[in-house]
Amino acid sequence: MSITEYFKLLFTDYTLGVISLGTAVLGAICGMLGSFAVLRKQSLLGDAISHASLPGIALAFLFTGTKDTNFLLIGALISGLVGTFWIKSIVRRTRLKTDTALGLILSLFFGLGMLLLTFIQKMPNANQAGLDKYLFGQAATLVASDVWVMTAITGVSLLVLLLFWKELKLLLFDADYTKTLGFNTRFLDILITSFIVLAIVLGLQTVGVVLMSAMLLAPAAAARQWTNSLSTMVVLAAIFGAFSGVFGTAISASQNNLSTGPVIVLVAVVVVLISFIFSPKRGLLFREIRFYRNRKELNLKKTLTFMYRIAQNHKDISHPHAIKILNNFHGFTRKSLNRLQEEQLIEIQGNQWALTPKGYEEAARINDKIGKKDE
Amino acid sequence: MSSAQLEIQLIAALVAMACAIPGTFLVLRKMAMISDAISHSILPGLVFGFFITQDLNSPLLILLAAVTGVLTVIFVEFIQKTGLVKEDTAIGLVFPALFSIGVILIAKNANDVHLDIDAVLLGELAFAPFDRLMFGETDLGPKSVWVIGTILIISLSLLLLFFKELKLSTFDKGLAATLGFSPIVLHYGLMTVSSITVVGAFDAVGAVLVVALIIAPPATAYLLTNNLKKMLVLSCFFGIFSAIAGYWLANYLDASIAGSMTSVLGVLFLLVYLFAPKQGIFSVYFKEKQQRKEVSLLVFLLHLQNHQDPKERHVNHLQEHINWQKVQAKTVLDLATKNNLIQIDANNLVSLTEKGREFTDEALKYITTNKETAIEDLKKRFFLFRG
Q1: Do A73 and A137 fall within a single domain?
Q2: Considering all CA atoms of chain A, what is the largest pairwise distance in Å, rounded to the nearest integer?
Q3: A340: domain range?
Q4: Does the predicted interface ipTM exceed a cut of 0.95?
């Protein structure tokens, strides 16, 4: 099946529709909540949480013996929350720093999870196959009820975000001020962190434990490049997330033998790269262009000021001078001279140039500014 | 114990030691998560290397993968320098991207690459003894022992050679730079050693668990000691312990060796986290409780010194005057009496003893001049019982 076929089938085939809707909703909630994670500098927390949820899945299976997604995800949620709060407690109560705490919990929980998974695989019980799809995700296993759960949770988190919008925004940008205003920052912190854990757990089935963190970060990091407003960023991140989800699933479904997780993550990362390079305000490309323009502008001004200083020594400001006296050090090139003439700041006659009254005024203004800075 | 079992434990112990050495410095330099990034992003390097060399243990492959690791660090730093995103986001974007490429490459070339996804995450320690290094007809032992052994020897000798420089630049970057030790050379040196170690250990324990071996032993050791040398020795010890105990646990459960090594490390960390003599949760809790009580005591003594009025000094009025709960008032009163700092007369009036007055004066002097930890000495001199 090729990608175009996939999209053609999307609207007619029920299963494909469900899967695409699921990944779109997942991408949207990840982008929304991921914006908060990125802005709070908690990007790597997502990585730790997603890895930390693995033992929860394994334990839930061991205790209940079912492969029902909801039970397994509740297990994942609990162990993800335990991991998160343990990280916070390590940072608060011991001398270990955030990075160490994250790495510790991430790897220790994941190790325990892998121990349990391999232990389960050896059990004389045919029911255990398929738990390892949680490592790299398999969107094809999504069914309608999973999508309903996702949609409901997305709705709830959207509601909570809207309800606490102003508090959360304040917490993001000035936590100390939020505290002095009397808001319970601890509660807000726990609230947003818990929802981030929830979003990660929802994604485990589709994207998998190992790469879930990127799904959280990438749409938000991309959205950040296009706007300085939080609400726009959240909306954009949700759109980017949904796009990566659907497109990634389409690519992985049209190829053999590909887990969804890595493909979705790669699509999201491509979106990030595009944003890094092409965003008009922060993007690298336009930034370079701006630098280039500024440099040229500066050169023009340099030439003009030099001309002004010569013209000042003459009674007639429009007295012509030889082009020869200008050199590269004054930012002079034939092209820049032509531009000055185009803007009617100077007149060129043969090998001579003369300032126009407009050019003289402009140069005087620039010169005044320079003079003021020198003082 | 068969020779294969012995060899597995030997390899595991060597891997653990090799990881603990760079790990100690990564933890102290607050760069622990870089090891996570490196361990994931070397995957495409490994796969490309495998396409070229067709041998998972070839030195060229290890070198190629290690270069990918260092490139990751450079790449993260480049993204960070553009100022578009913060450092943590940069790390969080780079390594999943590279890891995804690696996973897809493996999945697409599953028939050509003898690496499977499980091996990427878990390593193949159990099979390590079967891949042997042959010299002519003589059997020189498993290849992994040689690979990891060489890496361990290299990082040990680098550690001994540059111990002073590493120590200095870890604890005081500014001073190290002024004294002429280039922070950049040391930084990338450490990154290179870490990358090579990760690649070497990858084969044995897999992408995520190598992070556990790098971070957990030093983090555990850091809660027990303030001395860099002791921390290095302790980290190695924890690593080796987890290798041996983890092997037998895996043997017992018939599960992944790498997983059980990590779980042993997890239990070790949990124990130290709870019970470490100075940094442990319990000892910190008790210390904080003691200090709270002793601060209350000091407040109480100052109150007594400032008020001569009998009404202010009556036992029953203390609660309302310094706003204490009943229980707290009683414990503070008891503590003060036990230490002979106050006396209570027949009318239930509290007054300072000679010793109490002396202590309060000195404590007041301490509070106004505030010279660091003098208060601890003061408490030691006056207190018979601590809070």
Answers
A1: yes
A2: 104
A3: 286-374
A4: no
